[in-house]
Amino acid sequence: MGITGFEQEAQDKASNRTGVIKRLPEAAVNRIAAGEVIERPASAVKELVENAIDAGATRVDVEIEAGGAALIRVTDNGRGMGREDLSLAVERHATSKLVASEDGTVDLLNIAHLGFRGEALPSIGSVSRLNITSRTEGADEAWRIDISGGAVGEPEPASLSHGTRIEVRDLFYATPARLKFLKSERAETQAVGEIVKRLAMAHPDVGFSLRSGTRTSFEANAEIDESAASRLHRLGRILGREFEDNAVAIDAERQGVTLTGFAGLPTFNRGNAQMQYLFVNGRPVRDKLLVGAVRGAYQDFLARDRHPAVALFVGLDPQYVDVNVHPAKSEVRFRDAAMVRGLIVSGLRHALAEAGHRASTTVAGAALSSFQQGNYQQSAYQPGNRPIMPPRDGMPVGGFAETNERLWAPLGGAGLPGTEGLSGRIETEEALAAPLDLPLGVARGQVHETYIIAQTEDGLVIVDQHAAHERLTYERMKQQLSDTGVARQGLLIPEVVELEPFEVQNLIDRSDELAELGLALEGFGTEAVVVREVPALLGDGDIKGLVKDLAHEIAELDAALSLKERLEDVCSTIACHGSVRAGRRLTGEEMNALLRQMEATPHSGQCNHGRPTYVELKLADIERLFGRR
User: Fold this and answer.
1) Residue 321: how many CB atoms within 10 A of its CB?
2) Where is average pLDDT lowest: 124-133, 552-561, 578-587?
3) Tens of pLDDT, residues 147-164
4) Cβ count near 96 (within 10 Å)
5) CA distances for 547 relative to 2, 505, 534, 539, 579, angstroms
6) What is the location of CATH 3.30.565.10 in the chain?
7) pLDDT score of 377 more than 50
8) Has this prediction a pTM greater than 0.85?
9) CATH classification of 26-99+108-218 is 3.30.565.10, yes or no?
């Protein structure tokens, strides 16, 4: 008795259950591999450009259309391939970048190339229309091979001077469902640009260009050498001139691992971490290790919501890093991750310390852009001429009154209308004659009892006296902690500070740790503490305000954390209360002493929260504001 159609259908379904093991067809295998390696057009560009670099190319040109979905063309001047190699290159797991030992084994922990899996070309060919044209140097002719949806044709003679040209058309046409997951054309174009720029940052000895449709969006010629200056020039070409002007060099080594690159000054920061790049043996990678290490290195200098700009290049023996942990090779695993993290933190901190008091040039640019020109008509402001002001009482129509006399009056003098409440001073003739070749110049006055005005050889410097002194106090406190401990001074009359009961208990619980930081206190009932010793650096600071701030800070700490683990936060609070406050009048000697200390103290260009401590304006920029240039 034969089986019915319904029974046959049930048997067919049973044979397709997951419990029945079958070998997948070759086309399905290739498309699964393509899903792992080729997620979007940018993934294909990455694989093709890496192959070009591995082939010894010194020039790589990339062209795309419709964000790479319609066309990707990568042309290089590398070694090229002959007919036999061309046929092998489109087979899965065929590669020239891994060498088998005499017993036939392959060491996957000793990878010295960017690409090595041998999956990129067959994976791309399985989901697109792919053709490869290549010619080795000195060969009589070039060869071309076509692949369409995984179907491989035979190599044919073609025309090409030398190197390799790869065209990918109609990406994912063979897997239409994948097209639905692509983003907009603009987003895909930006992703391709990011890939090309990352590879260009890692390989300054290679020239790159990227063309989208009819527009060339990126081009960088190969640098003439492998020096730090050449690398910085390439980084500036990609990350912007501002990064080039505000970056410090990094050069560190530990246990055979090298760290080079450039780090932006703390005052050159961003609202996100997109300008943080890590390269391992020339390979662009994204790694949480970088984020944590960079945050640790900059935690003394930036607010929590600000992020620095860095480009770090780690070099080490390939056997000590596994680049085979991700199908797209975008992640790596270090054998000794803690050592690499420590190297990054110490290398960054050393480089930032070498920068001394330097602040980023963008601070001055922001200051200049905030200035508003006078309330005169724009039409009267002519290039090369002084601005023509509207007439005022006592001024001739058409411009300024000409006089050979220098008018002097004390700032804030009672005889000048509109200057009531303005604080400041004009220095003595002796101060005016002081040399100007010092980095931060010579103090000329103080305005609003908060800002110091100093004159340099080619401009002026405006210093926030509280922010600057806060950084100086903080650095001295850290130095004392590492050397002999924070110096303390006893109070002739102990200070009683009233607090909430839970705040009193928190402070008593941490009293031993606070004593190491120079603050000796004890309970005084259930709603107050008595302070008997304070850090000598605090001087005549606000002791009550300091204790209350520390009580609030400790209340926010995790109970499992010690104050030493949050040392920067606690020291910063103490330094803030021990600093010259805004609103305090300073003498000329005090102002100049502050400037000299800033010049000699690392990191003095920014306060503990990442804000600049001073702004430098060049004379040429000031003259432009007044139409003199």
Assistant:
1) 25
2) 552-561
3) 998 888 999 999 998 899
4) 17
5) 93, 13, 10, 15, 15
6) 26-99+108-218
7) no
8) no
9) yes
